[in-house]
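Field notebook, page 275. I keep forgetting to write these up properly, so this time I am using the form the group agreed on. The chain and the ligand, 6-hydroxymethylpterin-diphosphate, are recorded exactly as supplied. Prediction of the bound pose follows.
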Amino acid sequence: MFLQCGRFRLSLERPLVMGVVNVTPDSFSDGGLYADTLRAVAHARRLVEEGADILDIGGESTRPGAAPVALEEERRRVLPVLEAMVSSGVPVSVDTRKPQLMREAIGAGAAMINDVTALSGPAALDAVAPAPVAVCLMHMQGDPGTMQLNPSYQDVVAEVSEFLSGRVALAERAGIARDRIVVDPGFGFGKTVEHNLELLRSLGEFRSLGGALLAGLSRKAMLGKLTGREPPERVHASVAAALLAVQNGAHIVRVHDVAATRDALAVWNAVKRQN
Ligand code: HH2
């Protein structure tokens, strides 16, 4: 199985590590650390050296309660970092909800568009369909402003699965082939700790949707609740969560701590090969 990702064709036989670059002043995990272009580019280069298979550059925090960012400001944050990294040897994803920025990012060489609203913005599907970029379709209940106030489901796995299956169908109808599609249950996006744990236990079920499966648990609040630690101290818990996600079927893990995750996956890969 492969993922078509711009000019890259990524094998999904081994788990892939997507390294997060937040060019934001307010991200929950690393807000402000890489908010200017030079720092963000230096961080992105470091993640590539540490073995990231994909970079994910974002210019708008989606943490619970985050304020929306204007297009102009998000563009100013994201595009220079993207331009600096397009020839780094790894595909670069742009994490955005804005169709206009999707278009501009694709024009500047983005290989993937990662949209926490699963391309539901006006004309988002049209923005991404013509180029051979990969698209990440993520589930979210509500919006970042209010999503953690009272998340509720009858059956979280079934409801997330039904939503993603509908988005995959719409993407295919818009001309996006299966080998360009990534699905993501959206850990922490309108979910309680119990919902997240249930999704993690049943992650393998989302493989039947046909796309590559991505899991983003890195440093998230659920790990804080389980360990009592603040985001920068959630590295060990994040590595454990990434390993569990891969064990339960994830093809791609979206992480802040690339080196630590790579080490854990090296062990996982070695044991898997023996089997
Ligand atoms: N999580 C975050 C942002 N984008 N995209 C996908 N596909 N899946 C995720 O789980 C996901 C995502 C939140 O993490 P982070 O980027 O570190 O924080 P912030 O949104 O505050 O910038």
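OBSERVATIONS:
- The radius of gyration is 17 Å.
- Residues 20, 22, 24, 27-29, 58, 61-63, 95, 114, 116, 136, 138, 184, 186-187, 214, 216, 254 surround 6-hydroxymethylpterin-diphosphate (CB under 6 Å).
FOLLOW-UP: compare against the apo run.
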